[in-house]
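Follow-up to my post from last week.
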Amino acid sequence: MKEWKNHQRNEDKEVEILDFNHSRSGNKRVRKKQIQQQNTKRKKKNRNKEFAIVTYAFLALFIGMSGYFAYFVQVKSSDFVNNPYNARLDRLEQYAIRGKILAEDGTVLAETQVDDAGNETRYYPYGNVFAHAVGYSSHGMAGVELDANYHLLTSHTFIVNRLANEVIDKKNPGDDVVTTLEVPLQQACYQAMGSYDGAIICIEPSTGKILAMVSKPDFNPNQIDANWNSYVSENSDSTVLLNRASQGLYAPGSTFKMITLLSYLQQNGKSFQFDCNGSFSYDGYEMHCYNGKAHGQEDLIAAFGNSCNSAFSQIGLELDLGEYNKLCDKLLFNRTLPTNLQTTAKSRMDLAEGSNSSLVMQTAIGQGKTMVSPLHMAMIASAIANDGKLMKPYIIDYSQNDGGTVIKQYTTESYGQLLFAEDAKTMQEYMRYVVTNGTATPLNSDLYEAYGKTGTAEFSSNKNKDHSWFVGFAKNAAGKEIAIAVVMENVASGNAYAVPASKQILDTYFSTE
Amino acid sequence: MVHIIVSASRFSMIMLMAIYTYYCFAALRSNISPARQERIYHKQTLVMYELLLNGNLVLFLVLEDMRVLGLMVCEMVLFAITLIIYKKIYENASKSLVNNMCMLLTISFIILTRLDMEKAIKQLLFASVAVVITCFIPILVAKLKVWDKLKFVYGVVGIAGLLFVLVAASTTYGAKLSISIGPIVLQPSEFIKIIFIFFSACMLQDVRDFQYLVKTTIIAALHVLILVASRDLGGALIYLVTYLVMVYVATRKPIYMFLGVAAGALASVVAYYLFGHVRDRVIAWKDPLSVIDDQGYQISQSLFAIGSGGWFGSGLGLGMPGKIPVVTTDFVFAAISEEMGAFFAICIIFICISCFLMIFNIAMQVKDYFYKLIALGIGTLYGTQTFLALGGVTKFIPSTGVTLPLISYGGSSLLSTMILFAIIQGLYVLQVDEGEFDEGMEESPKKRRQRG
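User reply:
Got it. Predicted complex:
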């Protein structure tokens, strides 16, 4: 028999076993050998308990990993597969004809036409109107063409067709992608922008669907190949290809007073009184109201409605800058926006504690170093409309095979509460006041109830050239809702541009069913 | 036409793999009769050959290279010899473990042939050498009784070996691992981990007191620290986990385990702030796409491959696994998943689980305490290394840069894993040989009791 080396490891155990043996056998003279054997057996059993624990721990790790792996392949992989760095995408073109891009109602926005010789041409029926939203598929791609590239080049056509195509060496039809874009709304936005540069983006607050997205200057995607060199040549300062709605960064102007207001409400509540005489001086820096207008005695809501720079300079100085910064971070400044779009710009707001008072005053009214994207402002408006809850913006609704069977459905995703529900309700009240009594009165309509904030952003030393802003939302009795951000560049002065443009868009949206 | 065959083969290969994996677990059921078990193992062997045939024929069509067929024949012969050795000479060996070893090698040969013919040929050579070397190991383990008396040898050789690597090794991918002796490139730490298990088992077989345990732990920690200094973090982690589990089982005190894990966690945090390469791995793990041009390139490429392949894979030769850096070693799993499908890849995970369970099963049955600890150490080491390799590639955990046992390219890794498996076979042989004896031992006290 083999000698067990560990039998004397623990004397307590031995005594224990001796007792155990004693009671069971009734024999007082237990031989040492027997103790050893019993001891060994017992130890083996007990030791196996530790073995079992280790085994289960490893099993749990492996099963967890398999689960994660399956989850990755099923759910997360599309984020990776569709990345432009994934060289495999280029290869897909050999096997599939690029699918169509469709509007929400099935209208074709982009399709590939194949002539008798097998030459493929990408055709965009609406030309410039959907230029940035739909994008282009050559020269590195942009817009939905980029975001949905993988779907467009992957075929889920009926298996028999696929086999037949294999045999005769023919390409399979790629899947079609249905977007959230609405054609009439997109056209209204395109027209509302007129000949100005700038951006408009419309989002459905309850879902996050991007309903329309316009950026100007624009281009005709049908002629992208012919004009490409002029867009990207070194001596061209053209920003035609930039989608200003999602990637453009602008000084927010007075629309930023929404955030200043929210911070003040959180810190000090609604109590505020100010007597505006058209300008405000502090610490040697003078702030003027728009056109030097004196607003007289104002409470908080009136100051917001009048977009009073003097009052908001005072408000800015009263704010705890740490909390102000924290609120901006919470509202998605200085970080990648939570959207399903591949390329978005990060808004910037950074007001260090102890900044000099002139910078504080400027920041409070939306000047200073703060920069925002129209998409970001629309998201904030969308969250306010939705009682604080932000739905992640997305533009691809689902992909379907050539027979119309849905292959991949993108569901609405909640980001969570961007701001507290009660804060959102107060903001709604204040933004409604801007339309009923403030700077956006042209938006009063029987068709809908509009809420918002206007803005005029100075972007250069030329006082006669401004960016005109409107950020807000509107809803009707039937529950139809839309959040909107409009920015028009280089206009003569403020509200006379973005507000009427918004009116045109909202009128169109709410007059159709 | 080739395209159709390759496409269809994806499904046939997944089917074969699924059947094989099912058999792995079907044979583990407790109420199964030995004869049935035998039949299942036999069928498993057949399925393995079918997969080898299927995979190589597809590769032949895709690569249009006669060498594929030559390789296939050599592989079949090698497996036949291996199976015969363990069937005829070591009658009592674990068939499950032999089958799994051959199956994992089959997958390795298929994917290496696909990725790099030269490496596949070399790997086949390594495997043949390893089979020859390891066929003596079970008998040595079972018959030589000196293994538990060499603790000083193990300790000295282990530390000296690792120190030598630290000083003399050339740096590959940021870690000092390889020693070149003429045409042969060795990774000594692959072999020292075996010695380390023996060392730990020797020391822990009789933990006399706390002081003794501290002494042992200091020597073990020295191993780990030298590895950290060589920047072989994956290796350090494997040694550490193996040692902790062995201490836990030997002392039966979870507190040591928790202390060890706490120390390990603390060390990781320190390492995170101290070493740039650790930080890089963590950054790449958190959001690889945001640093795709830099630290995240490798893991992103791996995930592109896995994601693009999807559940059924692109088909052998139709993917682009060549885009993944070090695809033949650390990231071989991503290449398999891309071309043979995620289903196939998950089956591999389950075959690895089956190997792990078999080793632990043997560890639980072994009576001799020293050998029990050896089996435990081998099982833990295998489990840890497999988990780190698979987890790193799939972004489940930060990448630690360890090879996937038996599948990754590399002679040292292959040989050391096959040695570990052979040691387990030796223990299995030992265990079954002593089986009758043990039963008799259990009966005798009962008889005595009856008499009393």
